[in-house]
Design a protein that fits this description.
six-stranded mixed sheet, Nucleotidyltransferase, domain 5, binds FE2/S2 (inorganic) cluster, elongated, Ubiquitin-like (UB roll), 29 strands, 676 residues
């Protein structure tokens, strides 16, 4: 600290710094710099939410020599908190500790004061917090005959004086309960305040006697196949518990179009499907609350994402218009609603936020994945693909983003493949084929052993070898291509039957026997064709977006969704699912839609960011683009008939082009699936 200068304080990980007079509480310094530090008790030293640590040592880059000695001595308030609630030795309460010299202050991500079970459900990413929900502990002045201000009004006065909330609105039920609540704990209450838009009037949505030191939120991705739901502590930002369940609407149809048809044909169908999805959500909420020992009435804010049809059915909107051109959404912008209006069994006054949809077949799930992966924040060109029965594709950088969907069909999920199945124990998920002997080895879900390793058979008997899941199908087809079993145009080379008994005649075509057991698993010519159709649809969509941006290559690829999580990027490129790219720049990002929902839950700035981004994204209707057909035909070949894959060729020995005659390439014959 230079003589005559106030101490310099740097907050990490925010990286914000400033000089403050000696004696300034660290919490005040953080606030002044706009660094988010949680506080429920307003600096009374009772909530423990404002914990910090001080980094020791000399930070030459910042010109700071930081030491815990540069904080005030451990106060009696901190000692009281430590004895009652526990505080690790290196932690201080920033509302109590004051600045005495230069400091580098760390705000730990896990100032978890309640001991809920923390599940490893996060990708480890830290989300800067700026939630729409605030817990504010206040002491309200007692009534006075000479000052006839109502209880609720004195509460508002206290919230303004202690927390700076002005122009508060009240939920309509509060006047009926406020008197009782205030008197329960000697005029000390925790007010739950919701303010989504920073310029909107804040609303008092709940009031609790004494200190309510935890508030929870839900981040949920309603997928057409699976619903994934996370219980998140809004105060600490930690995911407390996660649960998933199959979407119960599957009973109305496997794919989304059949669910739309069901609604069209059954007048009661929409209500039934809405009820089913809301019930499933309530069951999952029960499950996560049970896992974590959390009272469901302490859930105040919920964020949902989903594809357009799930989005509509969840909100109780008839999705019929999404069943055909022009695929009109009832609402494309973000939706705000009371949770009670959606039959969600959480706090009566909880709020719901649903991310905006990008287009009639590129939903709020794609918007959430965009928020999570951030193509719109990149200098480079990023391609984001969420592969399902309909692939949602977003491409661009900070200057321009385009989006489309492509009708891949269910082949990537194992449907329409003779040996295909959903990912489950016993399903083949990894495949290698020896290019000389054409003998395969594989791995199944449930064991780490390869099929040629000792002990595999014993492990496999636990589940059986039941089929091939999506990632296994990609690998077996790619390996068949690399081993020369199939030609560039996807035809199984029957002449190899003379060399290997794995190649067997199957009518006028040939098949490849992957497994001979109780159940024979065979990859047929039709299976290969189904994969070709699916991958050609995906690639043609990607290529159209590249045309729109006037580019021939992409810098980064992100594969999202359940399928994207398990697919090996190398094999995705061998098949030409995605454009040529440096292997290290292709990443599987798991449930990016769920991650985006969590970001929107914990930080309302992200809500504004995605709302603005979605407004700017250029939507492209693949069905209307003339060049789609041409790209599709070229993309039927492995990896592609006309597009070079020079980067792929640096790490994979691509077979010499071997084109087979006699098989109709299905040029132009393909199915259109509008939505997944
Ligand atoms: Fe509550 Fe510091 S703000 S203990």
């Amino acid at each position: 600290m230079n003589k005559g200068q106030d101490p310099l304080v740097l907050f990490m990980p925010a990286g914000k710094r400033g000089r403050f007079p000696v004696g300034t509480p660290v919490l005040d310094a953080a606030r002044e710099l706009g660094v988010y530090v949680e506080s429920v008790c307003g600096g009374r030293g009772i909530c423990g939410r404002c914990q910090i640590t001080v980094a020791e040592g000399s930070f030459a880059k910042h010109g700071i020599t930081s030491s815990v000695e540069n904080l005030s001595e451990f106060s009696s308030t901190e000692a009281r908190f430590k004895s009652k609630r526990g505080l690790p030795d290196d932690r201080r309460l920033s509302c109590s500790a004051t600045i005495q010299g230069d400091l580098v202050v760390d705000i730990p991500a896990d100032a978890a004061v309640n001991r809920q079970t923390i599940r490893k459900a996060d990708d480890g990413r830290e989300i800067p917090r700026n939630p729409a929900l605030h817990c504010c502990y206040v002491t309200v002045e007692q009534p006075d005959m000479h000052k006839p201000l109502g209880d609720l009004d004195r509460l508002a006065k206290a919230l303004e004086a202690e927390w700076g909330w002005t122009d508060l609105k009240f939920d309509p039920h509060l006047p009926a309960t406020v008197q009782q609540t205030l008197r329960k704990r000697n005029w000390e209450v925790t007010a739950i305040i919701h303010q989504d838009e920073e310029t909107a009037r804040p609303t008092l949505i709940g009031l609790y006697p004494g200190l309510l030191n935890e508030a929870f939120g839900i981040a949920c991705d309603i997928g057409s196949t699976t619903i994934a739901l996370h219980l998140v502590s809004i105060l600490s930002g930690l995911t407390i518990a996660s649960a998933g369940a199959p979407n119960p609407q599957i009973r109305y149809g496997e794919d989304l179009m059949s669910r739309v048809s069901y609604v069209m044909m059954n007048p009661e169908g929409r209500e039934g499907m809405t009820r089913a999805v809301r019930e499933a959500l309530n069951n999952l909420i029960t499950e996560v609350c049970d896992q974590a020992g959390v009272n469901r009435t302490h859930i105040f804010d919920l964020v949902f994402v989903g594809n357009p049809i799930m989005h509509h059915l969840f909100l109780g909107i008839d999705p019929t218009e999404l069943g055909g051109a022009p695929f009109a959404l009832a609402v494309s912008g973000a939706v705000h609603a009371p949770a009670s209006s959606l039959d969600l069994d959480v706090n009566d006054d909880a709020r719901v936020y649903v991310l905006p949809c990008i287009a009639g077949h590129v939903g709020a799930d794609a918007a959430a994945a965009t928020l999570s992966e951030g193509p719109h924040r990149q200098d480079d060109i990023m391609l984001l693909v969420d592969v399902g029965t309909n692939a949602e594709i977003v491409l661009g950088n900070k200057d321009r983003v385009v989006a489309a969907s492509s009708p891949t069909g269910p082949a990537f999920e194992g449907a329409e493949i003779s040996c295909g199945q959903r990912a489950a124990p016993g399903a083949i998920e990894r495949v290698r084929i020896d290019p000389v002997t054409l003998e395969p080895k594989f791995r199944i879900i449930g064991t780490d052993k390869w099929s040629d390793e000792l002990g595999f058979e014993e492990e496999a008997t636990k589940f059986g070898i039941t089929g091939v899941c999506g990632s296994g199908i990609i690998e077996v087809v790619a390996e068949m291509f690399l081993a020369g079993i199939i030609s560039q145009d996807g035809v199984i080379d029957g002449s190899l039957a003379a060399k290997s008994d794995r190649i067997v005649a199957d009518g006028r075509t040939y098949s490849y026997v992957l497994w001979r057991g109780d159940q024979q698993l065979v990859v047929t010519q039709n299976d290969i064709r189904a994969i070709q159709l699916a991958k050609a649809a995906l690639y043609a969509g990607v290529r159209l977006l590249m045309d729109r941006l006037g580019i021939n290559s992409v810098d980064k690829i992100r594969l999202a969704g359940a399928f994207g999580s398990f697919i090996d990027p190398k094999y995705a490129m061998v098949l030409g699912l995605v454009p040529d790219c440096e292997l290290e720049n292709i990443k599987s990002v798991g449930n990016a839609a769920g991650a985006g929902a969590k970001m929107a839950l914990l930080n309302r700035t992200y809500r504004r960011e995605i709302e603005e981004t979605v407004r700017k994204i250029e939507k492209i209707e693949t069905a209307l683009e003339k060049s789609f057909q041409e790209h599709f035909v070229n993309a039927m070949a492995f990896p592609n008939k006309v597009e070079p894959f020079p980067k792929l060729a640096t790490f994979v020995d691509l077979p010499k082009v071997k084109v087979s005659a006699g098989i109709d390439q299905d040029n132009g014959r393909r199915r259109r699936r509008r939505v997944r």
